[in-house]
Amino acid sequence: MNNDLSHVRPDGQPGMVNVGSKEPTHRTAIAESWIRIPANVAESLEQGDLHTPKGPVFQTAIIAGTLGAKQTHQLIPFCHPLPIDGCDIDIALEGERIRIRCTVHVFHKTGVEMEALTGATVAALTVYDMCKSLSHDLFIEETRLVSKTGGKSDVGA
Known about the structure:
single chain; 157 residues; alpha+beta; Alpha-Beta Plaits; four-stranded antiparallel sheet; 4 helices; 6 strands; 31% strand; elongated
């Protein structure tokens, strides 16, 4: 076992990182998901005021993504439950792709990268679910951390 892994205890068993001695800081993470959609779905979304037979696509995805970010600690075993200060999800139709960007803010001892990634992913899954009545040729292509700030190391800031 590699004892340099943060979630592996000295006895080789998994464990949550103790953040008790860390100082709280303002932390922000931004994650993005992209969905490739066929031309007919893009056209339907443009013409149908971003609704499908299931309802308003982007509004539903924003709500679902926010709920996902807030529930990350219940889905990912070693994530700490965090009192999220804010979660903003922006969704845009860009030709035959949909961009979902989730920004999460917290003042805490640990970062919100997983919350931002979960929010973006859950929003992408919701868009997929809302649009599958139009086509099953939907592809969630990429989910990635765009940036994080406020911890001991910044990424992409």
